[in-house]
Design the sequence.
């Protein structure tokens, strides 16, 4: 399938994002097109993706310039693709265009928030783009009325995408092999949290483990429709697991799936102290895990 990406420069292009916003989140959380136009004309980025033969936009991305830890950073606020164009590569094309825009501005990191229980989004962000996270926000947006978030605390992880790296380039082009969940389990990586049937089951890893796994449901939206109380149980379990892990210096650097696609887990890596981060080859600061047969389960992410 062939796509083209067009940068929004007028109000008509920004208005064209509204039906996609409504289809994705419902009409309760629409970003007004006038605001998107102001963002686009003030160092931000709004772009739409079009499929060949379809005059309607198939997806869009929008973000704005910000400051994080005294450095300029691009905040990617929205990315949405119409259902019929998901899993086609369009989302990657949109993120690549956003990355090119930021690199032209001299910006090296793009950030955004993500629900840590959304496995599909985690797979896209970590496996397709090469992101990482080490920050957890409780109920970040408060009560949200849209169809994806209604009825639960809006907990979020803060995603960091170092875009001026070989890792980002390799992930975007599909040249970087993504580790597998089975490989991590064969290496004995302990679970901080895992699924026992549908329920969250806390693990009891030894203190000081260099790597941990944190499992989440494969389809959180389906689970929420079936059992809202169980969805809340998962929300609180992930919160109780990730907050102290991040406080102890862990970062989630991959999202791993098994061969069936029915199980998924974040791979957490404990960051060494700043003065030791270049002690190991590649700057990761820890011996990489090894798949059976010798291929590496790499941490990949440079932790700034």
Sequence:
């Amino acid at each position: 399938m062939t796509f083209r990406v067009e940068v929004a420069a007028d109000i008509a292009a920004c208005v064209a994002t509204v039906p996609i916003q409504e289809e994705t989140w419902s009409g309760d959380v629409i970003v007004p097109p006038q605001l998107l136009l102001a963002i686009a004309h003030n160092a931000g980025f709004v772009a739409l993706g079009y499929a060949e033969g379809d005059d309607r936009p198939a997806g869009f991305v929008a973000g704005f310039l910000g400051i994080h830890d005294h450095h300029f950073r691009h905040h990617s606020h929205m990315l949405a693709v119409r259902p019929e164009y998901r899993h086609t590569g369009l989302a990657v094309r949109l993120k690549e265009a956003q990355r090119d825009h930021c690199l032209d501005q001299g910006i090296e990191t793009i950030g955004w928030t993500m629900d840590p229980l959304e496995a599909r989004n985690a797979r896209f962000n970590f496996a397709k783009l090469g992101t990482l996270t080490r920050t957890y926000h409780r109920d970040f947006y408060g009560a949200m009325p849209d169809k994806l978030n209604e009825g639960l605390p809006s907990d979020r992880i803060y995603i960091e995408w170092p875009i001026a790296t070989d890792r980002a380039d390799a992930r975007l082009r599909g040249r970087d092999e993504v580790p597998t969940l089975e490989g991590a389990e064969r290496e004995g990586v302990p679970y901080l949290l895992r699924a026992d049937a549908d329920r969250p089951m806390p693990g009891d890893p030894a203190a000081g483990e260099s790597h941990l796994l944190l499992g989440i449901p494969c389809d959180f939206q389906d689970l929420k429709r079936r059992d809202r109380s169980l969805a809340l149980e998962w929300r609180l379990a992930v919160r109780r697991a990730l907050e102290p892990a991040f406080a102890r210096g862990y970062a989630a650097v991959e999202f791993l799936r098994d061969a069936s696609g029915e199980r998924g887990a974040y791979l957490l890596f404990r960051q060494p102290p700043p003065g030791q981060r270049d002690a190991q080859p590649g700057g990761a600061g820890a011996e990489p895990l090894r798949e059976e047969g010798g291929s590496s389960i790499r941490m990949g992410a440079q932790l700034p």
Observations:
- Residues 80 and 289 are 34 Å apart (CA to CA).
- The chain has two domains: 3-172, 181-297.
